[in-house]
Specification:
The protein is mainly alpha-helical. The chain has two domains: 1-40, no CATH class; 43-189 and 199-209, no CATH class. It is built from seven helices and seven strands; from the N terminus they run ββββαββααααβαα. The longest helix has 30 residues, at 94-123.
């Protein structure tokens, strides 16, 4: 039997437990290691769709509009996320520039795009190989999206420069904060278990209906 197994294995201590139906708002906890095995959320697909669209919409102004404007002796220096990556390249720190480019720009964009496609395929009930591939890629790419590290870098730069001149936060900072909030909520609240359940039912039905 490919689907509908009556047991579930704990991903921390490998305890084999009876699988039970779990309503939204409750969580399934391993009695051996007290690890949370499952915590369904209400309407994960529409919630993931809304948060991913919000993040993708805010990414363009967050990446290209001014995050901070530093004024010293009448001279203004405007910084954006893309400019920060270019400055690192020009300074010769190409490895650091690539790391910032991937973890702060490309990985968050790819993660939100993957969540958007997963939600759209789920709404269309397309539970084939494409959805499975996207779910696997999304589970791996989410580990590399590190917007909160970039936010800490902005705060550190603000604290260091505030005594040397005037520092003003730009519209890009507002968009970046909103994008960070939406992406973080999507990472925490997007529940793929229900989608995997639907994939299992779909593939289990195909297996049962296959001629022998």
């Amino acid at each position: 039997m490919l689907y509908g197994q009556p047991h579930i294995a704990c991903h921390e201590c490998d305890a084999l437990l009876a699988d039970v139906a779990l309503p939204a708002g409750k969580k399934l906890v391993c009695p051996r290691c007290n690890c949370t095995l499952r915590k369904p959320v209400r309407d994960p697909v529409n919630r993931g769709l809304a948060l991913s669209l919000t993040s993708l919409t805010l990414m363009v102004p967050a990446f290209f509009m001014p995050i901070m404007t530093f004024n010293m002796l009448g001279l203004d220096t405007v910084d954006t996320m893309v400019k920060g990556v270019l400055h690192l390249f020009q300074a010769g720190f190409w490895w650091m520039a690539l790391l910032v480019l991937f973890c702060s720009i490309l990985a968050p964009m790819l993660e939100n795009l993957l969540v958007l496609l997963i939600c759209l395929l789920s709404q269309a009930r397309r539970y084939g190989g494409l959805l499975i591939t996207l779910l696997k890629i999304q589970s791996r790419i989410r580990r590399w999206a590190m917007l909160e590290v970039y936010m800490l870098g902005i705060l550190v730069a603000y604290v260091k420069m505030i005594d040397s001149g005037q520092v003003h936060m730009g519209i890009g900072m507002i968009c970046f904060t909103g994008m960070l909030l939406a992406t973080t909520l999507n990472t925490v609240m997007f529940d793929t278990h229900s989608i995997w359940e639907n994939v299992g039912r779909y593939r289990g039905g195909l297996h049962e209906n296959r001629p022998r």
